[in-house]
Amino acid sequence: MSQVLNMRYPKALLKRIDDFKEKKGFTTRTQTIIYLIQYALEQSDNRDS
């Protein structure tokens, strides 16, 4: 089962995401956003432990 989520981001945030995407070599903005969410969740888990 596939789910679709449409979100709006401020232009300044999109610029930062695109810069990070280029720096890390991701091919899509979606990959970059998912990576950043996963990373933030891992950091949050590590802080809570």
How would you describe the overall organization of this protein?
By secondary structure, this protein is mainly α. The protein has a domain at 17-48. 69% of the residues lie in helices and 0% in strands. The protein is built from two helices and no strands. It has helices spanning 11-24, 29-48. Helix 1 (11-24) packs across helix 2. The longest helix has 20 residues, at 29-48. The radius of gyration is 13 Å and the shape is globular. The N and C termini lie far apart (33 Å).
Overview features:
single chain; 49 residues; mainly alpha; Ribbon-helix-helix protein, CopG family
Query: Main sheet?
Result: none
Query: What low-confidence regions span 5 or more consecutive residues with pLDDT below 50?
Result: none
Task: Give the SSE string.
Answer: HH
Distance between the termini: 33 Å
Radius of gyration: 13 Å
The overall pLDDT average reads 91
Any idea what the shape is? globular
The number of helical elements comes to: 2
Tell me the number of strands.
Answer: 0
* SS content category: mainly alpha
State the helicity in percent bands: 55-70%
Taken as a percent bin, the fraction of beta residues is under 5%
Organism: Virgibacillus halodenitrificans
Protein name: Ribbon-helix-helix protein, CopG family
Condensed summary:
The chain is an all-alpha fold. The chain contains two helices and no strands. 69% of the residues lie in helices and 0% in strands.
Please render the helix and strand layout as text.
Elements: H1 11-24, H2 29-48
Helix pairs in contact: 1-2
